[in-house]
Amino acid sequence: MDDLTFRTDSQRLIELLAEVHALGRRVIAPAAAAVDAQARFPDEAFAALREARLLSAYVPTEYGGMGLDIVELARICEVLGGYCGSTAMVFAMHQIQVGCIVHHALASPYFQAFARRISDEQLLLASATTELGIGGDVRTSTCAVEVEGGRFKLDKRAPVISYGVEADAILVTCRRAPDAGPNDQSQVLVLRGDRSLEPLSDWDTLGFRGTRSLGFSLSSSGDAAQILPRPYADIHSQTMHPFSHVVWAALWTGLAADAVSHARAVVRRQARKTPGIPPPAALRLAEVDTVLFSMRNNWLATATDYRARLEHAGCGSFPSDFGFAIRVSNLKVTASQLIVDIVGKAMLICGIEGYRNDSPHSLGRHLRDAHGAALMVNNDRILGQTSTMQIVAREG
Ligand SMILES: Cc1cc2nc3c(=O)[nH]c(=O)nc-3n(C[C@H](O)[C@H](O)[C@H](O)COP(=O)(O)OP(=O)(O)OC[C@H]3O[C@@H](n4cnc5c(N)ncnc54)[C@H](O)[C@@H]3O)c2cc1C
What is residue 152's three-state secondary structure? Predict the structure, then answer.
């Protein structure tokens, strides 16, 4: 994978990215084919990421984390995406949940202590937003949290919870109370020891197979302090929505960049055979690199805007305007389309070497992972929401 550093990068980030590249080459990439073939969790990758203390990369330093900002974190996701799409996706999904806690729950003594636990124990957090009967409409819940005597009880039938079995905790969306409306939602932290997971469905998919996103019937209970203190409506608009689409777009860019690297290797080999005469595929390589350039700049621009909003707000609470929400949705839709375009173009350049499963330049896994991007919150659902905002948003 290419070295994607900028002259403006801090020394700390340069060293961290070099460390992640080293892990990628030594541990993550060698296991990627087996993770994909067996649809198994990337255990060795997460052992290494935990050892490097990267699961608390976004936890503020006062709680024992690295205190990275969203742009720095997304840069790590991008690098990981170049080595194993599933590893990068699990890492990104974990960080989104960490972001929800860091932005919206650190006023609570319970979550201050939990943030320290994420750092000390390198806890892995998963998410259960999707619900049976509702599909991907994350701003609607059927299940409700019930609180009595300082304890909560929450059951949810979730058709997809990535790495639900492997996670130390799951953040679950639900209605705020049994008498609350479907959009009046809370987010609840469910700890491993306080939940049971009854499998509902397996995870035998085209791509992102190592995320092990089985369906479960989840039953849980715990301390009422584990309910995030802010309404999910705020958490969603200020964190879940922008954070997810930034880190996903970044890792998809890394995956696309790796496909282009394979294409470049093939073209370079062709060029060595005909010194002085560029092979015809070199033109295609130049073309696909322009698309990759756009894809990367899209997520960087959105992440930089998001970071500025977070910094301006102090900790999380900024009014999310329609313009920002539309740009975030546009990022997701374009990135999920460009990844398929780029991998397809790289395939054309690699030819049969990219098409074969047994070739060092095989792009089969890249192509299968790429098609998952449009479905992770379905693009049509996103465009449906954006179309409404387009009508009411101000010009400019
Ligand atoms: C790799 C991967 C990992 C995932 N991990 C998790 C996880 O950890 N936790 C979790 O909760 N979920 C997870 N998901 C689920 C995901 O985020 C979506 O919620 C889920 O894939 C939605 O499934 P769906 O496409 O059947 O549903 P829908 O989004 O309901 O879409 C079904 C169909 O209906 C159409 N449709 C529905 N509503 C509308 C609308 N309003 N406007 C336009 N079209 C509409 C869509 O176009 C589509 O054709 C994961 C998904 C993937 C691919």
Answer: strand
